[in-house]
Amino acid sequence: MSELLAIVRSADEDEELLEEIAQGRPTRVTVLVEDSRPDWASDESDEGRATRDRLATLLSSIETRTGATVVGLAGDRGQLRGWRFDRVVSGGRVPLAA
């Protein structure tokens, strides 16, 4: 069993994030939504609805592409205290310093 944490940031990184997740061949994926408004889950504005629609599409795509089960969605790192992951991916990879 492979536990993976996927950190969601900007929408333009979603495809790269999906690719990284698929490469990890996880059995279970937890999704952390970073860099978003803290009230995105209950925000009834157009922006809030768009964020939730985007996440629903992303979660479905993760399950379809990888066969993994999405086991949770977190809005901040504090919600994941005590959880353990075999791998963390975030899309938009940051180059390593030489």
Structure summary, number of beta strands = 4
In round numbers, the mean pLDDT is 86
Helix-strand topology string: EHEHEE
Number of domains: 1
- First CA to last CA: what distance? 33 Å
Percent in strands: 15-25%
Given the structure, what is the number of helices? 2
Helix- and strand-based class? alpha/beta
- Helix % is 25-40%
Poorly predicted ranges (pLDDT <50, ≥5 residues)? none
* Strand line-up across the major sheet: 3-2-1-4
Q: Could you give a short account of the major beta sheet?
A: 4 strands, parallel
Supply Rg: 13 Å
What would the principal axes of the Cα set say about the shape? globular
Question: What does this protein structure show overall?
Answer:
The protein has 98 residues and is of the alpha/beta class. The chain has one domain (3-89). It is built from 2 helices and 4 strands; from the N terminus they run E-H-E-H-E-E. It has a 4-stranded parallel β-sheet with strand order 3-2-1-4, with helices on one face. Helix 1 links the parallel strand 1 and strand 2. Helix 1 (14-24) runs parallel beside helix 2. The longest helix is centred in the middle third of the chain and has 21 residues, at 46-66. It is globular, with a radius of gyration of 13 Å. The model has no long low-confidence stretch (mean pLDDT 86).
